[in-house]
Design goal:
Blueprint (H helix, E strand, L loop, with lengths): L4 H30 L3 E3 L2 H9 L3 E7 L2 E7 L5 E7 L7 H7 L3 E2 L9 H30 L15 E3 L13 H15 L1 H7 L6 E5 L6 H12 L3 E5 H5 L5 H16 L2 E6 L2 H4 L12 H16 L6 E7 L17 E4 L5 H12 L11 H6 L5 H18 L6 H18 L5 H19 L7 E5 L10 E4 L10 H22 L7 H16 L13 E5 L5 E4 L3 H27 L2 H14 L1 E3 H14 L1
Parallel strand pairs: 1-4, 2-5, 7-10, 7-11, 8-9, 9-10
Antiparallel strand pairs: 2-3, 3-4, 6-8, 12-13, 12-16, 14-15
This protein binds adenosine-5'-diphosphate, magnesium ion and zinc ion (ZN).
Length: about 600
């Protein structure tokens, strides 16, 4: 944060105010507080009071007679008067009336009291006033603390988030991955006893509005532990050096409150890849903060029960150091909801509003493919607002329909929602992959197919899981993989007679695999077992370097090309022979958006029996 001229002005006002207040206090308030009121009276008044027996004590100080006497209300009051020279009878008169002779009558408060009042009190006032001013200033500036010294990190602590997994609809996989953490927080001792170390951190990865923050809160709620949350951007906007102090503070507080959850939202703002030799001093502050975070994560004892959750929608830009074991080594995908998920989310949010009994949420879920949880919550809220506007007592179906239109229209402009035509293409593409895989002998079984866009940017996704771990890949395996990779594009060709850019990732993967077959695995007849490429850096990304002549390089390209062409031909043959299944499965996927491997196999077998 930079100091703005506006702020400096405020500070000046503040100083002025303090000085004025101090002056006023010194002139009017302190003297009254510090000294008893001493009234000066005439000598006759003094004598009259002596005669009336009101005078109690008398003393001679600073050439004056100071005396105490009862006033009209019977309270002790202080007086002084001049001394009448040569009034010899006075002593006897005083003795007669039993007046005590005092060495000194205090007309000043005790030194301690005067110190308190004239020194400590103003200081305290000063501090209080300053604090109040800081607070109002801070609030006006959007909540940044302006404290020096101890970091006054804006850490939000909720002792109870009040959220549970029941508030998070869908996201079953993410919830499952998080239940272990909940269990750990419930009873860290159980894990410590066996010596098991739970991952210190888990990273929630997914597009905005999919419920990452909600999930983190739900974990804290389920485990009934305190929830510390801070957003990455808050670390960075501080004074230089404050980010690191904040991190230190955060972890100190968290350790005191363990077991608990520390949630760092938008971690990509501090966790960006550190670029060496960039601009001088460019991102020092961010880097310091990140380094401190890494140090804290390494430093603290995982057994104590502090679990760090972080969320990001840009996992690709995170510094690899954050993802190393012992840090955020667990990655939990939080994807956009499919049809069922959307229905469940709508239902969760419908509970909080008055819905007409006849409302059917299913068509709403169907119409909102690609919408996130936050957008669905927004749809329900928009419908409620509309119901109020229209004077309906409850939310009616057409309120919902209208709100879908307004909300989705907004998102459509952003390109977040996929058109029906595109959805159909994606469905055929994915079924193309799956069907080709299923029709080949050595392919891994399909476990899940979805046409819900992924965080990675893929529009759809076909997951295959090998039944058993394999370390060796035969030439047949490799060829099968290539055929499966080309299956998506092939389905598009056969059904729509046009091709799209949707296969770019498949093409990249296929090319890499085919190239490796030729240059590294010795799987081509032409080159036999010649290593044409070597992996230079096996651990960091696996860069390869070519070790051959330009002539050979051209031959390699031709060979790679031929391999892929042949895989593409095989895919075309397979799909052409299974057109009926292709249509059936694609229609089913289009309807469900996500299907399991079992569902896929069931439909495949059914249609095979008919044929
Ligand atoms: P993120 O942190 O991923 O950007 P949030 O957790 O802030 O998303 O979600 C914003 C809001 O959207 C939540 O407060 C909740 O109302 C709604 N929401 C998102 N996902 C879900 C879900 N799976 N179930 C219920 N509500 C959800
Ligand atoms: Mg969030
Ligand atoms: Zn594909």
């Amino acid at each position: 944060m930079k100091e703005q001229p506006n702020q400096r002005k405020q500070l000046l006002y503040y100083c002025g105010l303090v000085i004025i207040v101090m002056l006023l206090l010194n002139i009017f308030v302190f003297p009254a507080l510090l000294q008893p009121q001493v009234t000066e009276v005439t000598y006759d008044d003094f004598l009259a009071k002596v005669d009336a027996g009101q005078v109690e004590e008398v003393s001679y100080q600073d050439n004056m007679l100071v005396f105490t006497a009862k006033d009209e209300n019977g309270r002790k009051a202080f007086y002084k008067t001049g001394v009448w020279p040569g009034d010899d009878g006075l002593t006897e008169r005083l003795l007669e009336k039993d007046v005590k002779f005092a060495a000194e009558i205090p007309t000043q408060a005790s030194p301690l009291l005067s110190f308190l009042i004239s020194f400590v009190l103003p200081m305290a006032l000063f501090a209080l006033l300053g604090r109040w001013l800081m607070n109002t200033m801070t609030k006006r500036m959007g909540g940044e603390a302006l404290t020096l010294g101890k970091s006054n990190a804006k850490i939000y602590i909720e002792s109870q988030t009040g959220k549970t997994f029941a508030d998070v609809a869908g996201q079953d996989e993410a919830k499952e991955a998080l239940t272990e953490i909940v269990d750990f927080l419930h009873d860290p001792g159980k894990y410590a006893e066996i010596g098991a170390k739970l991952p210190k951190g888990a990273l929630l990865v997914g597009p905005p509005g999919t419920g990452k923050t909600l999930l983190a809160k739900a974990v804290a709620g389920e485990a009934k532990v305190p929830f510390f949350s801070i957003s990455g951007s808050e670390f960075v906007e501080m004074f230089v050096g404050m980010g690191a102090a904040k991190v230190r503070d955060l972890f100190k507080q968290a350790e005191e409150k363990a077991p608990c959850i520390v949630f760092i939202d938008e971690i990509d703002t501090i966790g960006k890849k550190r670029d060496n030799g960039g601009m001088v001093g460019g991102n020092d502050e961010r880097e310091q903060t990140l380094n401190q975070l890494l140090a804290e994560m390494d430093g603290f004892d995982g057994k104590k029960g502090v679990v760090i959750l972080a969320a990001t929608n840009r996992p690709d830009i995170l510094d690899p150091a954050l993802l190393r074991p012992g840090r955020f080594d667990r990655r939990i995908p939080v994807e956009l909801p499919d049809l069922q998920g959307r229905l469940a989310i709508l239902k969760v949010h419908a509970k909080n509003v008055k819905m007409d009994e006849n409302v059917d949420l299913a068509p709403v879920a169907r119409a909102t493919s690609g919408a996130s949880g936050a957008e669905l919550a927004n749809i329900i809220n928009e419908a409620a607002l509309r119901a109020v506007r229209m004077g309906h007592g409850t939310i009616l179906q057409n309120d919902l329909e209208e709100s879908v239109e307004t909300v989705i229209a907004g998102y459509q402009r952003k390109g977040a929602v996929i058109s029906d035509k595109e959805k159909k293409i994606i469905a055929y593409h994915e079924i193309g992959h799956a069907l080709v895989a299923a029709r080949q002998k050595h392919s891994a079984p399909v476990t899940k197919i979805t046409i819900i866009p992924r965080t990675s940017g893929a529009l759809g996704y076909t997951m295959q899981v090998e039944e058993d771990e394999r370390v060796l890949m035969s030439k047949e395996d490799a060829m099968n993989q290539l055929v499966t990779l080309t299956g998506g594009r092939t389905a598009e060709e056969l059904i729509f007679h046009s091709i799209t850019s949707g296969a770019s990732n498949d093409i990249e993967k296929a090319t890499r695999l085919a190239r490796a077959m030729v240059t590294r695995y010795g799987m081509s007849d032409q080159f036999d077992m010649v290593a044409l490429e070597t992996v230079t850096n096996q651990y960091l990304g696996g860069d390869t370097s070519l070790a051959c002549s330009a002539d050979t390089s051209a031959k390699i390209d031709a060979e790679v090309n031929a391999i892929i062409k042949s895989a593409h031909d095989t895919a075309r043959e397979i799909l052409s022979a299974n057109m009926e299944q292709l249509h059936k499965l694609a229609a089913y996927l289009l309807e469900k958006e996500t299907i399991t491997g079992e569902e896929f196999m069931k439909i495949l077998d059914e249609s095979a029996e008919h044929a």
